[in-house]
Write a structure and sequence with these properties.
The protein is of the alpha+beta class. The protein contains 15 helices and 12 strands. The protein has helices spanning 3-13, 15-18, 23-62, 132-136, 158-163, 201-204, 212-218, 239-248, 259-262, 264-302, 304-312, 317-353, 360-363, 374-393, 404-407, and strands at 65-69, 82-83, 98-112, 117-125, 138-141, 153-157, 171-176, 186-196, 207-211, 225-226, 228-233, 254-258.
């Protein structure tokens, strides 16, 4: 029989324990543990949510890896075409973990109405394009039908539509700048068949999606000439490794760049979320641990007589320390239980009802995204329990200093 655990349970169940001097201190310690785990869960869920949402949105607009001509400039405009017929298209046989390869071509233009105008990048895509991302953020309408012999249908962001005071199914006039093959500006009319709102202001403010054949026609390109290839990976976590593999398996005149290489400042910024989360976790564990140390010391001082009696009856210091550590562990588990209930409830409320909103100009999202990983939650709880328990071992040594003959007289 584990008599230390038995005594610890009797202490916890006793009415005197619940009405003792240490009761408010114990409640404060439990509250500190609960608040700590709530803050840590929210920090973990929101930090991961922002990282995943921002990188997924960037991949939705740009793909995970882009293959373009070495002579292309660093802008988003496709200036030098490459041949569509490549060994790696439509299937990359030498590299696994690739979900889709899609062709594209970009052209700068200006949308004009009677009263206003807006600069845009016309992104032309083909039948191999994965519309999953835009379908998720579609506000109204549909994606352009690229199966027609020639389509004038385009997809615009809600940001552009609102600025130009347009609506679904309106016809918009677009003017495109001169190219090396055409010295004259081109005026084209397009029909808005879909409106999306990704919340990623950097792209929403200037992106128009349509038929790649329109871009080819505007640039005087041949049918087999395109701006480049976008590669969608199965797992973003392998992007650096797959980026190197892709670069090694394309022609010498082609260049490949991951979205991390193309937008380093954005990814450096979201990488800081990890540092912030770790700082919050360490701080909360320290605060909770200090509160538990205070509660443990009060529990020990409150039961000096009991400690003296147990020592007189032959209990060792280790056994008596176990009694109080069991007691403290119960308090930690109770705090973790309520902290998880409240913390996960807040996270689920945000996940389903989008209560907290953000400025998309700063955070690239309109609402605070949350990502729940039960593996991380489990590790967080186990880590908090272990760290708090370890912090209690040293103050429990005060029991060894208690003299039985003196403590039994203590009243």
């Amino acid at each position: 029989m584990n008599y230390e655990l038995f005594i610890a349970k009797r202490i916890i169940a006793g009415k005197k324990y619940k009405n003792s001097i240490s009761s408010p201190i114990i409640k404060i310690a439990i509250t500190a543990i609960s608040l700590g785990i709530i803050i840590m869960l929210i920090a973990l869920a929101t930090g991961a949510g922002l990282q995943y949402k921002i990188r997924d949105k960037m991949a939705g607009f740009k793909g995970h890896v882009q293959i373009i001509n070495y002579d292309a400039n660093n802008s988003d405009i496709s200036t030098v075409p490459i041949i569509k017929n490549q060994d790696f298209y439509p299937k990359f046989k030498n590299v696994d973990g690739i979900k889709n390869i899609q062709v594209f071509g970009n052209k700068f233009g200006i949308l004009r109405t009677k009263t206003d105008f807006e600069g845009i990048i016309f992104k032309g895509v083909s039948n191999d394009y994965d519309w999953t991302f835009f379908n998720e953020y579609m506000v109204e309408g549909r994606t352009p039908n690229l199966n027609l012999p020639r389509t004038k249908e385009v997809l615009l962001s809600q940001t552009i539509v609102n600025r130009l005071q347009l609506k679904l199914n309106d016809t918009i006039l677009a003017t495109f700048v001169k190219t090396a093959n055409s010295k004259l500006t081109s005026n084209k009319k397009y029909t808005i068949v879909g409106v999306y709102n990704s919340g990623f202001a950097e792209f929403d403010k200037n992106m128009m999606i349509g038929d790649l054949r329109e871009v080819q026609n505007l640039n005087k390109w041949k049918e087999n000439e395109i701006g480049g290839f976008e590669i969608i990976l199965d797992d973003f976590n392998n992007i650096q490794e797959k980026g190197e593999e892709i670069y090694s398996n394309i022609g010498a005149t082609l260049n490949s760049k991951t979205i991390i290489d193309s937008y380093p400042t954005v990814f450096e910024w979201i990488q800081l979320f990890d540092n912030n989360v770790w700082f919050i976790i360490i701080l909360m564990i320290l605060v909770a641990g200090i509160n538990m140390i205070t509660a443990l010391l009060v529990l020990i001082l409150e039961r000096v007589q009991m400690i003296g009696i147990l020592k007189a009856l032959g209990s060792t210091n280790t056994s008596i320390r176990k009694i109080f550590l069991y007691n403290a562990s119960y308090l930690i588990l109770k705090g973790l239980f309520w902290g998880n209930i409240i913390g996960l409830s807040i996270i689920f409320i945000q996940y389903y009802f989008k209560v907290i909103t953000l400025n998309p100009e700063t955070y690239y999202v309109t609402t605070m995204p949350v990502h729940i990983s039960f593996t991380y939650i489990l590790l967080l709880n186990i880590g908090t329990l272990i760290m708090s328990f370890l912090m209690l071992i040293i103050p429990s040594f005060i029991i060894t200093k208690i003299n039985p003959s003196k403590s039994i007289k203590f009243a």
